[in-house]
C-alpha cells in the first residue's frame, strides 16, 4: 500500500488522504498513518511545487556543473559530496558513472554569481580535479511537467 501512496503523491503532492484512500481502497486513517510514518522515516523528504519562473519574469540562472574528483580513502566520494551539498547554492548533487564523478546543479541570480561559486567555493575544494559548467539556456520540461506548451489533459476519459 505504501508504494501505491508514494506513487500518487509523486504525481501530485496535493492529493489528499481522502482522495488517496478512494484511489487505493484503504481507509483514510490507514493512508494518513502511512504518510506520517513515511515522513518520520524520511521516506518522504519534501513536498515540491514546480514553478515556471519565466512566466512571472523572475529570471534565474541555473547551471549544471560536472565535477571530477579524487575519491578519498575509506569514504570514497561521500566526503567531497558532503562538502559540496552543504553549500546553500547546491540544489542537487549526484554521484554518476562516466567521464566525471559528481553532477552539481546550482541556481543564482546572475552568471557572475554562478561563476564566483565555481571558482571561489567549488574548484578550491581539496580533491576536486576539474569542473565543467553548463548554463541552462531554456527549460522545456521539469519533473515530468511540460513548461511551455499546450496544456495536457491529465484526466482519463470516462467510458460509458
Task: State the CATH superfamily name of the largest domain.
Answer: Lrp/AsnC effector binding domain/regulation of amino acid metabolism (RAM) domain
Major sheet summary line: 4 strands, antiparallel
Low confidence ranges: none
Beta strands, count? 6
Q: Kindly name the structural category.
A: alpha+beta
Report the CATH topology name of the largest domain.
Alpha-Beta Plaits
3D shape: globular
Cα-based radius of gyration, to the nearest Å: 20 Å
Overall pLDDT level: 89
Distance between the termini: 29 Å
CATH architecture annotation name of the largest domain: 2-Layer Sandwich
Description:
The protein folds into two domains: 2-40, Arc Repressor Mutant, subunit A (Orthogonal Bundle), CATH 1.10.10; 55-138, Lrp/AsnC effector binding domain/regulation of amino acid metabolism (RAM) domain (Alpha-Beta Plaits, 2-Layer Sandwich). It is built from five helices and six strands. It has helices at residues 2-11, 17-24, 28-40, 78-85, 111-122; strands at 61-69, 90-95, 102-108, 128-135, 141-142, 145-146. Strands 2-3-1-4 form a four-stranded antiparallel sheet. Strands 5-6 form a two-stranded antiparallel sheet. Strand 5 and strand 6 (145-146) form a beta hairpin. Helix 2 (17-24) crosses helix 3. 12% of the residues are buried.
Amino acid at each position: 500500500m505504501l508504494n501505491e501512496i508514494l506513487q500518487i503523491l509523486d504525481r501530485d503532492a496535493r492529493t489528499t488522504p481522502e482522495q488517496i484512500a478512494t484511489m487505493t481502497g484503504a481507509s483514510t486513517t490507514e493512508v494518513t498513518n502511512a504518510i506520517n510514518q513515511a515522513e518520520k522515516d524520511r521516506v518522504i523528504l519534501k513536498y515540491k511545487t514546480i514553478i515556471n519562473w519565466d512566466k512571472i519574469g523572475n529570471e534565474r540562472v541555473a547551471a549544471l556543473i560536472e565535477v571530477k574528483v579524487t575519491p578519498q580513502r575509506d569514504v570514497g566520494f561521500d566526503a567531497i559530496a558532503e562538502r559540496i551539498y552543504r553549500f546553500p547554492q547546491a540544489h542537487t548533487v549526484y554521484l554518476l558513472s562516466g567521464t566525471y564523478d559528481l553532477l552539481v546543479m546550482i541556481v543564482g541570480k546572475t552568471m557572475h554569481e554562478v561563476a564566483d561559486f565555481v571558482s571561489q567555493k567549488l574548484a578550491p575544494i581539496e580533491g576536486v580535479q576539474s569542473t565543467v559548467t553548463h548554463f541552462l539556456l531554456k527549460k522545456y520540461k521539469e519533473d515530468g511537467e511540460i513548461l511551455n506548451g499546450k496544456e495536457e489533459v491529465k484526466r482519463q476519459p470516462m467510458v460509458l
